[in-house]
Amino acid sequence: MMGEISLIRIIDVEYIKDYTMRLEFSDGTKKVVDFFHC
Questions:
Q1: Tell me, what's the pLDDT at 9?
Q2: Average pLDDT for residues 24-28, to the nearest whole number?
Q3: Cβ-Cβ contacts under 8 Å for 35 (sequence gap 6 or more)
Q4: InterPro entries, per this entry (predicted)?
Q5: How confident is the model at residue 29 (pLDDT cuts 50, 70, 90)?
Q6: Is 4 exposed, middle or buried (0-12, 13-18, 19+ CB in 10 A)?
Q7: 38, 33, 5, 7: which is closest to 19 by C-alpha?
Q8: pLDDT at residue 36 in the model
Q9: pLDDT digits over 2-20, tens only?
């Protein structure tokens, strides 16, 4: 059985502060990510 493959790409990256960035994906969703979380 073959399913549909859809790719989601990062289309925009906004630097907020320190190691925190806001990513916008090709499906319209946005996510705030902390890259240095310990």
A1: 95
A2: 94
A3: 19, 20, 21
A4: NE0471-like_N
A5: very high
A6: exposed
A7: 33
A8: 80
A9: 678 889 999 999 999 888 9
pLDDT at 21: 94
Look at the block and give the residue holding tokens 């190691």.
Answer: 19
Instruction: Give the number of C-alpha atoms closer than 13 A to the C-alpha of residue 28, restricted to the C-beta side.
Output: 0
Amino acid identity at 36: F
3-state secondary structure the chain: CCCCCCCCCEEEEEEEECCEEEEEECCCCEEEEECCCC
Q: Which residues pair with 21 in a beta bridge?
A: 15, 33
CA pair distance 25, 38, nearest whole angstrom: 25
